[in-house]
Design a protein that fits this description.
Pfam families: CCG (PF02754)
Order of helices and strands: EHEHHEHHEHEHHEHEHHEHH
Radius of gyration: 19 Å
Structural class: alpha/beta
Shape: globular
Largest sheet: 4 strands, parallel
GO molecular function: oxidoreductase activity
Domain Cysteine-rich: 8-89, 158-247
Organism: Scytonema hofmannii PCC 7110
Protein name: Heterodisulfide reductase
CATH class of the largest domain: Alpha Beta
CATH architecture of the largest domain: 3-Layer(aba) Sandwich
Strand order of the largest sheet: 2-1-3-4
Number of helices: 13
Number of strands: 8
Amino acid sequence: MLTYTLRYAYYPGCVAQGACRELHQSTVALSKALDIELVELKKASCCGSGTFKEDSQLLEDTVNARNIALAEELNLPLLTHCSTCQGVIGHVDERLKECQETDPAYVEQVNGFLCKEGCSPYRGSTEVKHLLYALIKDYGLEEIKKRVTHKLTGLKCAAFYGCYLLRAQKSMPYDDPFQPEGMENVFRVLQATPIYYKGRTQCCGWPLASYATEQSFKMAGMHIQEAIDAGADCMVTPCPLCHLNLDSRQPEVEKVIGQKLGLPVLHLPQLIALAVGVSPKELGLQRHIVSTKPVLAKLGLTA
């Protein structure tokens, strides 16, 4: 058992507090089960999901410098549980740290806007880390293994990393951006079986959904079908936007591709929390569009 408590400045993001409330719910439940303290950044703003820079890179940098500065005020690392938030905020942090060496005037410009609003300046004194890699690198797979009370034996899990978590930042120190193993290693610790398929590191199609809906749904359908063909009982994703396209819109995806899918899609903290004894109801598994009951039945659990 851990003799200390990890602490993070928790950045829940927008989707986990709206359309995917079960992600926030399960992240909090898992953290409590693992004795991890989350200090929620209630004053944080939307990261922009990569859209701010279409109008202004300075806008994206300033908004997210403020988000990072809120974590710096607490002297804590900023924890995300959304691949898109991680990609955007992590990349801003990476870029501004580089600018501190190569273009300090630009960082001063960003901080000038923050000071005008009465915000703390960006210092570049912390790091931005996704829940997946916080659990692997900070908490440790062996420590997670010690906490497992309900092994996920027999459950075949297909990771869906998506693209932002792996390749939005220049540096990916925790995993291979093209052949990652982080989620699969977590599955193994939980005694679940990892399923490999072609689309696990590709885009889910969400960024296309507003202007090329059919193409977006075809992309999602292709990935889901590949996972089914590989024998998956469920998909597991570290991104709520991927979850929206793969789970919430799966009935619409089925209509576009003309075939039934019915593959449950779990958030990463939901899967881990099941293994460490958190109840399905506490994890919001009843909120999913595609029923998670087949997954629970395979594990001998009920909703």
